[in-house]
Amino acid sequence: MGVHPAAGYVESMTISRLPTLMIPHGGGPCFWMSPTDPQPPSIWDGLGAHLRGLAAEIGERPKAILVISAHWETPTPTVLAAERHSLLFDYNGFPEHTYRLTYPATGAPELAGRVQNLLAGAGMASASESDRGLDHGVFVPFKLIYPAAEVPIAQLSLCDDLDPERHLAIGRALAPLRDEGVLIVGSGLTFHNFWSRDQANLAEGSVVFDDWLTAAVEAPADRRDRELIHWAQAPGARLAHPREEHLLPLMVAAGAAGGDVGRKIYGERLAGAMANSGYRFG
After folding, report:
1. What are residue 165's phi and psi, to 5 degrees?
2. DSSP class of residue 247?
3. pTM higher than 0.90 for the full model?
């Protein structure tokens, strides 16, 4: 057991290196809708089943979780260092009961300090804060993954320049956490364009991009990183992501993967149309 005095973070020995994940988190509080709501829950049944099975997929229970959500952007990487988390209901227009969801996971301030130390060691400035709650890119999926909220959570922001190379580098800096019992999770969507009027072409474009993305993720690490940096040049890229904040959590997970090759562990066409995937590295 080792101690990093500057961060106050205590390492623990683990049986094995933990994987990194890219998870789709759905649409708002989608897993707590009823058949009479505007967004029928059946659309998200497959994804809900996948998220509920992730704890078994991971195997060893993490000491802590670091989540990079599509729903938090700051000028410099910022880690949520609260000892206790509130929830940030950052969605609109959903039934009243979805604003009363709870997820009482404890914070992980020691992990937050370790994150800042690792980023500093890689020459990256960072910040911390304690007041912001966990957004729905965190509490919505983790209510299904670890419903008892027994694993402490820290959240790390995206950088608002949305630079894929920068986010890969952030992931690389954080890779040592995998050997310290920390599960690194990117939470977003591999497709995020539900508002286009051209739904038929959009659906097919989403499949083209999803095929490209899966091939990139499953490529050897050096090629994977090169392709992810230039993701916007891929076929169907801007159809799938007019703005890339929901894709960039994947870059952090891929960067933290190091040489580990990714693989697709979830995939479906939502409502029979838009392609959506989840990935595991390691």
Report:
1. -65, -40
2. T
3. yes
Distance of CA 10 to the CA centre of its chain: 24
Looking at residue 39, its pLDDT comes to: 64
C-beta separation of 19 from 124 below 8 A: no
- Distance from C-alpha of 41 to C-alpha of 155, rounded to nearest angstrom: 27
Q: Which domains, ranges and CATH numbers included, belong to the chain? A: 3-281 (3.40.830.10)
Q: What is the dihedral of CA 239, 244, 247, 253, to 10 degrees?
A: 150
What is the band of 3 on the pLDDT scale with cuts at 50, 70, 90? very low
- Looking only at the bridges linking them, the beta strands covering 127-129 and 262-270 are unpaired
How much helix, strand and coil, in percent to the nearest 5, is found in the chain?
40, 20, 40
| 6-43 pLDDT tens trace | 333 455 554 689 999 999 999 899 999 876 676 666 88
